[in-house]
Amino acid sequence: WENDLGSKMQVFKVGKDGTFSGEYHTAVSSTEEPIRLSQLTGFQHLDEDEQCTFGFTVNGKKFSDSTAVFVGQCFNGDDRKEVLHTSWLLREKVDSESDDWKATRTGRNTFSRI
Ligand code: BTN
Q: First-to-last CA distance in the chain?
């Protein structure tokens, strides 16, 4: 899958209970460190209409102290191509509790199959 920022993710086989894992390669970063591959783990509903909701966490521990969580839903577009509409929260590590207020960013990403 690739999103509108150019980030790529690979999702491995979804388990019978809806759990899945995969790899996330972000195209952008708030850190100064070189970007590296991150792990992801998530859970999806297994609805037969294939328009399932899901959530997953991305842990960029190899280059970042942040944690990102995504929630979304799969749709079949007008062209019958699958698309994932997601919203995310990105939690940055801050040094003190007084900086807590500025530690969370939010946004939206759309993913298409590549
Ligand atoms: C960091 O900046 O600390 C780690 C990388 C975070 C990448 C974020 S997650 C939400 C947004 N969507 C992406 O594809 N990349 C950014």
A: 5
